[in-house]
């Protein structure tokens, strides 16, 4: 459509020119004594138009001629910039391919090209950020080559170049990479110090939290690691199953760090309610408390959520639950005896519950019922420790009845485990 309109305009101009020139009788007379020159008006107009075109063309040619040095300089600058960006791409490619010596050389080539551009007075607009990235890549290659001196030198230069406001993200990236390098060197304290240099917003990013989690675990700070894992779980950095497993492991590590009853209770209080309800955590806390000669009543309170969910527990975890309860049977109250009896009656063929109920009856000096339950349990228990303890208890009951052959047989069966 545009071409058709232009064609119509050209036809209109041609028609107007033909009408004007065809009927134009005007003339132009030039007096140059002693001469007189008569020219038609049409010829004069054509000569003026031609002169304008010649002058315009000449001025354009002269402008292009005088602009050649500037264009040549710009072309050379563009070639240097292209070479610099090509070297930056080569650095990334070599790093991904594991060719670290070539990657470091390519990063140094980027820095040389940028320095050459700056010295020629053509500094790129993002020169600081470009230099910082090149230094970070060179430091990454040096880290892979175990050249810690070069790594620290490039890191410091990167941080200096990234100090500007428009390069804040690059500085955050440099600190995060440096923290990761510190973890690879098994220096969690340095990693934590680097992470503290991040702004508040950057410190709550998923990659920063993951790094802090690794650093706190390496440094043996389970409480710090647990708090970080909670934040990561809230940010959905892990799947629900993985998040639960990580939090559970860190909670157990926190409990393992307690070396007296007071420390253990403080560690238990530092756990969130959802973590205290985890059967693995409650059972481990109770076992830890009993090993520290703590209050068995408190241990049973910690075990109550696991006991109520015992039907959903695996066999190994149920065995741990029974062992934890067995350690406090000397002071067990009527409420827990009722719970144990009700559970055993609800599952009369469960050897683990038969064992626990039998041991409870033995502590209450209900010898006949204890012997009956332990005999049934000894025939069905799969756990070697519980099986051995059941036969030992039967041996003690036989000795109380002065049944020497029965006691000898029970001690023999216990010794076989």
TrEMBL record:
Keyword Transcription among record annotations: no
All residue ranges annotated as the HemY N-terminal domain in the record: 26-144
UniProt entry keywords in alphabetical sequence: Cell membrane, Membrane, Transmembrane, Transmembrane helix
Subcellular location: Cell membrane; Membrane
Gene Ontology terms: biological process: heme metabolic process
Membrane topology: Multi-pass membrane protein
Protein name in UniProt: Heme biosynthesis protein HemY
